Amino acid sequence: MIDTFIEHAPTQVVDAMRSTITGLLGTLPPQHFDVSVNACGQSLANLFLSVLMTGYLLCNAQHRMDLARQLGPAGEEGREPRGLALQTASFDSEEEVLYAPGTQKTRVSGDVVRWHVVNGAEAVPAADYIQSLEDEIRVLRQQAAARRLQPRSAPGNELLEYLRTLEPHAVAELTAGADSDILEAMNTMIYRVLGATDEDLRNIPSESNAIELARLLFFLCVVAYNMRTIEMRWDTEQTMLLSEEPGSGRGYLPG
User: Fold this and answer.
1) Residue 82: predicted pLDDT
2) What was the pLDDT predicted at 208?
3) Mapped to the 3 state alphabet, what secondary structure does the chain carry?
4) Which ranges of the chain have pLDDT less than 70?
5) Residue 75: predicted pLDDT
6) CA separation for the pair 5, 115 (Å, rounded)
7) What pLDDT digit, counting tens, does each position of 35-93 carry?
8) What ranges do the domains of the chain cover?
9) Global pTM?
10) Which of 20-42 are b and which e, b meaning 16 or more Cβ less than 10 Å from the residue's Cβ?
11) Is CB count within 10 Å lower at the N or C end of the chain?
């Protein structure tokens, strides 16, 4: 199950799950440290429920992010297409090599008419207008050169970055829709993993190897992700069935 999920799930989802579990258990290398986790049964149950809800949340976040991308603009706001950016960079580099900065404006005459948002049409001497354009180009080239000198950071996880942009109430909404059947299934999974009922949890001491616990938490995260996927599929099927019923007014053509 885990191998199949890793093979077919979006890479950013798998990485987000691993990042979440690493944040819970720490980053000590297992080849050098033998880490064990001691906890009572109730604490483990709370941890398992938190991880299950994380898997449920990541599934909702992934689908919402994909939907926003499909409904949003074709390109990212404020970002020019890659081809245009490359062409612009190539043109600027060639121009910087072939031409000295500045232009000879002694014989430039006439005015350039510009529209001021308050004052209306304004006549600007052409030589002054050319100089202002040259100053603007110089500043832009300096900024571009400074950006090129900055070290490039490693690409982040798009899904986690998307979650960081959401308001707290929007993040809470990603799990608020879990119905009673899902919550019951999660609790049943927890009790089966622990091998105990709700009344016995507080009195069960537990010691786990960090590697084994990390695998278990990843498994629970995948289970919850798949739960939400199945739930969404079922909701879609029910919506389609309702739309085909007589009298629904949606998609039904009388024979």
Assistant:
1) 42
2) 78
3) CHHHHHHHCCHHHHHHHHHHHHHHHCCCCCCCCCCEEEEEHHHHHHHHHHHHHHHHHHHHHHHHHHHHHHHCCCCCCCCCCHHHHHHHHHHHHHHHHHCCCCCCCCCCCCEEEEEECCCEEEEEEHHHHHHHHHHHHHHHHHHHHHHHHCCCCCCCCHHHHHHHHCCHHHHHHHHHCCCHHHHHHHHHHHHHHHCCCHHHHHHCEEEEEHHHHHHHHHHHHHHHHHHHHHHHHHHHHHHHHHHCCCCCCCCCCCC
4) 29-33, 72-104, 146-155, 197-203, 242-255
5) 42
6) 59
7) 777 777 788 888 899 999 999 999 999 999 888 888 765 444 444 444 434 444 444 45
8) 2-72+156-243
9) 0.61
10) bbeeebeeeeeeeeeeebebebb
11) C
**Residues recorded for the chain:** 255
Q: Which two tokens stand for residue 223?
A: 């289970």
